[in-house]
Amino acid sequence: MIQPLRRAHQWFMAGLTLVLPTIFVAGLAVRQPSPPVSESLPGRCASARNISEAMRSFQKVLAPDLLVYWARAVPSDGTLPPDARLLGSLYGTQGVDVSPVSSGYLLAYSLPDRRVVAYVAIRKAVEQL
Fold this sequence. Notes:
alpha+beta; 2 domains; 2 helices
């Protein structure tokens, strides 16, 4: 009684050793790539009042652990510029109203990927006297 069950178990395990790696490799081949670094997000913001909208547009980016930085320029190679200032985690800064000191960019930085995955241009609001 036990011998037929052991034999069936052996065949089942041998089958799994062939099927599971094949499924894993097929899943890696079908996986979609992350968005390119040079691509800007849609809907650039023109004034300081729209920073919260710019931060909401970062939610469309499919990257893990996004941090939001403020910088004067966007780097061409995807690394953070030296003058970048950390504003916080994307999900922790949703309710914060940040007004820019000067024109610049909000950068979405993926910590595990160690690169800037998206950015939005922000211009300082000009007050009329």
